[in-house]
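Please, structure for the following, as tokens.
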Amino acid sequence: MNSSVIVFPGSNCDRDIAVALEKLQFKNKMVWHKDTELPKSDLIVIPGGFSYGDYLRSGAIAGKSLILKEVIRASEKGCPILGVCNGFQILIETGLLKGTLLRNKNLKFLSKDVYLKILNIKNKFCNKYTLNQVIKLNIAHNEGNYFTNEEHLKKLEDLELIPFKYCNEKGVIDENNNPNGSLNNIAGIFNENKNILGMMPHPERMINKLFSGDDGINLFSSLMN
């Protein structure tokens, strides 16, 4: 399978994503944000980092990059697109995902491991996990507090467009185990066709059991599957 990772000024997780993809035998290419053509891609990844130093608003400047016109066209054809952390913020800025990402509830940058409960495995991103499985991933963000209106929140819940939520090690989903204040403990969302996933936790940081844990690798193997 062919993958493309979009690189912006200030990105700092693009190489991590590339390592994860190549470990799963993706044929990966790095694509500069000023390019106007995408290589043949079975998966497009918008990585985490601090594109343009998070000036103006996280992801706002990157969301106007030339290559994103091609990303939007690919999404309309059903190409799987993954946005991690700043990539999630960029997907929202482009309108590919709805809602907004506000400052964390404690107004502080968070960098730590968190638990997630898998709520939907009938999609291209999570089919290698088991339903209600609890996994551990890393977060590192200042604006990860997901918010949307009541109508859209109901749609996310009713159509099962929330693949995972923050929880504790036993899978309990409540306010005490919500690191950033996200509505309903939401850690990531799909678009209605479930070919676009935006998530704040970093699966690419959890692909080696000896270093940090390997709970993120099944997201990439799901895509390969």
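Residues 2-105+143-162+188-224 form a domain with the Rossmann fold fold (CATH 3.40.50.880). The first helix runs from residue 14 to 23.
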